[in-house]
Each structure stands twice: as C-alpha cells, then as structure tokens.
Write a structure and sequence with these properties.
Helix content: 25-40%
Strand content: 15-25%
Structural class: alpha/beta
Length: 280
C-alpha cells in the first residue's frame, strides 16, 4: 500500500493538521493509502507554544515522519503546507527522502511577503527583531476555529527559526513558474510580482484570462512584456488551453466555450503575439 505522509505546519506558521483538513484524508482515501500526520515540535500546545524550538527540531520531526512512512508502505507521497512545504524542500538530499515518490506543496513558504524578514537570520537580525517587534509575536485570529487550531502568540525567536528553514531551501534548482491566469485573479501589480522573483524565474505560463489565445482577454500584457524585458528574461514560455470538445473536461472546470478549436492555430497565434510583445 502507498503511504501518504503529510507534514503539517502553518499559514504564518503555528498551525495544526486541521489547517487544510480533510484534504489529506480525502487524498489518502482516493489513493487507498495509509495516512500519517505528524505534529511538529512546539505546535499544538495550549501554553508556551513554540518555546525553545529550533529549525533542527523540525528537521528531526520530518526525518522521523518519513521513517514511519517507510514502515507503512513501499512509497511515500510527502505533502507540506506553507512552512511545512518549506520543511519538505529542506529535507531534499536527506537519506530519509529516498523512499519519497513525490512532494506536494500547498502554498509553499519560500519567501515571506515582508522583505525585511530576510534580515532575521543576519548577524544583527535577532537584536533588531527584539527592538522593533518585541520578544513575542502575536496576532488576532479571524474566527473561533482559527483561534482553536493555530497558536496566535509565540516567541520572536521562533520566527527566526522559520527563516533559517527558508534559507535551507535556497537552492539553484528551486525555480519559479509564474502563471498569468492565476496572477490576474490574485494580484494587482504584475510588474512587482515579476521583479520579486526575477532571480528565480524559470518560466512564464502565458495563459489568457479566459484560457484562450494570449492577447484576446484581460491580462495586462504590455506590463508583463516590459517587466520581462526589464529583468532580461530568456527562459521558458508555456501555453495552456482547454478543448471543450473532449467530453466534459472543460465544463467540469467552468469552461463553457471552446477556446482552442484548433491547437495549431492557438499556438501559432499565441507565439506570434508573444514574440511581438517581447521584441517591441
């Protein structure tokens, strides 16, 4: 039987396995897999949450969870959420990962939204954090369940340990692919998004807002082209289209018209549009 090992952690971190429940349970049931969910050090406490925990403790927890996964099946699917995904990537290269068939990352934390967070692991980082933020970081839960399943107050020192974990994932083979279809539903400043990941940008998933031919929807292509030229982008371009003539594939994904009746025309028109935009 295929074991499914899920490393749970956090959104800002400090979460429990209920963070995306019952996703892991549903996936395990669909695969006919054994499911093991681990509790990382410092998590799930009612008092002294995260007290005295360091990044090495979480790495040891991951190694232990993977060892258990190896005992309950032949292969392992490792699922990590937010900083749990960071932990999964930090384990790459460890002997405990030899049994891992795949890594599934849900909203991985490879760089906090706050740029200043990177200073936390530098020589004066811990001191500056205590001066400007204090010894403890606290936040208000959005609802009763979040307050129940997340630790909302923990030592600032533990946030520094999270950043140490993030730094362990800073590997040249860890790259970013930006999907314009999802960007248009989630962000307002396309240029800022591209410049933020410029050093790690591997590819651009050039998809229109209606998943049709690029240039025929709502995506702000001139802004994207200018940003890509600004960073000297010279890597991969990817296309995606849904053919609604294939059973109910497109319909099940909310597509009610055929945006790709002819794949050759789709790619040809799309490439011509992108070449002109990147050249101009």
């Amino acid at each position: 039987m295929l074991p499914l090992v899920r490393l749970w952690e956090l959104p800002g971190f400090s979460a429990t396995r209920q963070e995306i429940a019952p996703t892991a349970e549903l996936v395990a049931d669909a695969l006919g897999a054994n499911l093991f969910e681990t509790r990382l050090a410092g998590h799930g406490r009612t008092t002294n949450a995260m007290q005295g925990v360091v990044a090495e403790d979480w790495l040891a927890d991951a190694a232990e969870a993977l060892a258990i996964g190896a005992k309950i099946g032949d292969r392992t699917i490792l699922v990590g959420t937010s900083t749990g995904a960071t932990l999964a990537m930090a384990m790459v290269g460890h002997a405990a990962m030899d049994n891992v068939e795949a890594i599934v990352m849900v909203s991985p934390n490879f760089a906090p939204q706050e740029p200043g967070a990177r200073w936390l692991t530098r020589p004066l980082g811990p001191l500056l954090a205590r001066i400007f933020i204090g010894e403890t970081r606290s936040w208000t839960p959005k609802n009763e369940e979040q307050g129940l399943y997340w630790s909302t107050s923990y030592p600032m020192a533990t946030v520094i340990e999270v950043m140490r974990l993030v730094r362990l994932t800073d590997h040249p083979n860890l790259r970013v692919s930006l999907d314009t279809y999802h960007l248009v539903t989630e962000i307002l400043d396309f240029r800022e998004a591209i410049l933020t990941v410029k050093d790690a940008l591997w590819g651009m998933h050039m998809c229109e807002s209606n998943r049709g031919v690029p240039g025929e929807g709502l995506i702000p292509w001139p802004t994207i082209f200018e940003a890509l030229k600004e960073i000297g982008f010279d890597d991969y371009i990817l296309f995606e289209a849904y053919n609604s003539s294939i059973d109910d594939f497109a319909f099940e994904r909310g597509m009610f018209h055929n945006v790709c009746p002819d794949p050759a025309v789709f790619v040809g028109d799309g490439m011509n549009f992108l070449k002109q935009g990147l050249k101009g």
